């Protein structure tokens, strides 16, 4: 190995023997070397950020400086040929020769930015440094879905989600303005309830709703930079009256039997055949009979139950 090869090799950078270090000292100052005060800046959307790239050492008077934006497989120039490029023209500038300042970042700016410096007069003619920029975005008001009415004892799922926030939002639910724990079992105050709240997905699942679960619900999406709330919605819990349902079914059965009997009797007595030409008494005996039965029942209650049965 020649002295140059030793000094240019990666092993020198990673720490090597004292003898190598001694040999290389004269060469070290000839290499262009970059550093950064912050390789992972985090900034909120619409704020200013400095992507720090500092030339620690060089012997070249006018090193060539370039900045590239790297997002997945996409590589674009941000600073090239001594000029800011693309959509950065209006909102970025170079600071202290090598650092890049973005004056108004957007969420689209989240990417890796590479500062590349070429110094032809140096022994090691180039160096580069990568800066990982993260742009944080406040959550927007989440979309919440709360079932309007659920019968006692049934399961119910409440949804809450928003897609703008970065980092991704976590979710909390409130019942009559009181925050809910992630598990109803964890707090004796909620011992009459049975729910699990998933803060990551925003779903609140009741295994079996109780009367006490009725009320107003809303959800809040939160991340490192902000929070947003959805409109409060009412969830109603109603009794499922088994006796009422059976009663309702019986009434329907009785009505059907009576209609059938009515038709049979009419048929046997010859009403059907004889009066067919007139087309009159065929309708009259059966139908009003059935209608009367339904109307004598407590109307609202009956409809409710029968629709549920169906
Ligand atoms: C930053 O950019 C956004 C849109 O990209 C714009 O609405 C806002 O006014 C800008 N803010 C400043 C301070 O220039
Ligand atoms: C739970 O239900 C019982 C009986 O219905 C009631 O007496 C009690 O106050 C309820 N507890 C809570 C914490 O709501």
UniProtKB/TrEMBL annotation:
PROSITE patterns: IG_LIKE
Domain Ig-like: 32-132, 142-236
Keyword Cell membrane annotated: yes
A Gene Ontology cellular-component term: extracellular space
GO biological process: adaptive immune response; adherens junction assembly; angiogenesis; apical protein localization; cell-matrix adhesion; establishment of cell polarity; granulocyte migration; hematopoietic stem cell migration to bone marrow
A Gene Ontology molecular function term of the record: integrin binding
Domain of life: Eukaryota
Protein topology in the membrane: Single-pass type I membrane protein
Transmembrane segments annotated in the record for this chain: 242-267
Keywords: Cell junction, Cell membrane, Disulfide bond, Immunoglobulin domain, Membrane, Signal, Tight junction, Transmembrane, Transmembrane helix
Listed Gene3D superfamilies: Immunoglobulins
SUPFAM superfamilies tied to this protein: Immunoglobulin
Subcellular location: Cell junction, Tight junction; Cell membrane
Alphabetical list of SMART domains matching this protein: IG (SM00409), IGc2 (SM00408)
Main subcellular location: other
Pfam families: Ig_3, V-set
Family membership: Belongs to the immunoglobulin superfamily.
PANTHER family xref list: JUNCTIONAL ADHESION MOLECULE C (PTHR44598:SF2)
Protein name from the UniProt record: Junctional adhesion molecule 3
Organism whose genome encodes this protein: Pelodiscus sinensis
């Amino acid at each position: 190995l020649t002295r140059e090869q030793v000094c240019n090799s990666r092993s020198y950078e990673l720490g090597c023997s004292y003898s190598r270090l001694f040999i290389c000292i004269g060469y070290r100052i000839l290499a262009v070397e970059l550093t950064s005060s912050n390789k992972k800046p985090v900034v909120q959307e619409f704020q200013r950020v400095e992507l720090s790239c500092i030339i620690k050492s060089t012997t070249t008077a006018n090193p060539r400086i370039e900045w590239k934006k790297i997002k997945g497989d996409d590589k674009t120039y941000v600073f090239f040929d001594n000029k800011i490029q693309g959509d950065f023209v209006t909102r970025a500038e170079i600071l202290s020769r090598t650092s890049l300042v973005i004056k108004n970042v957007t969420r689209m700016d989240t990417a890796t930015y590479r500062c590349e410096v070429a110094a032809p007069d140096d022994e090691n003619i180039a160096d580069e440094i990568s800066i990982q920029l993260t742009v944080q975005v406040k959550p927007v008001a989440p979309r919440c879905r709360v079932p309007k009415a659920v019968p006692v004892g049934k399961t119910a799922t409440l949804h809450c989600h928003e897609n703008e926030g970065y980092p991704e939002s976590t979710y909390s639910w409130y019942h009559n303005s009181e925050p809910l724990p992630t598990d109803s079992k964890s707090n004796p105050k909620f011992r009459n309830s049975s729910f699990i709240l998933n803060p990551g997905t925003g779903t609140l699942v009741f295994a079996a709703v109780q009367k006490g679960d009725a009320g107003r619900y809303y959800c809040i999406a939160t991340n490192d930079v902000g929070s947003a709330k959805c409109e409060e919605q009412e969830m109603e819990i109603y009794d499922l009256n088994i006796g009422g349902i059976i009663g309702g079914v019986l009434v329907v059965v009785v009505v059907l039997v009576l209609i059938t009997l009515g038709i049979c009797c009419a048929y046997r007595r010859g009403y059907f055949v004889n009066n067919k030409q007139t087309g009159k008494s065929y309708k009259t005996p059966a139908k009003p009979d059935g209608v009367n039965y339904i109307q004598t029942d407590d109307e609202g209650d009956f409809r409710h139950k029968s629709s549920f049965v169906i």
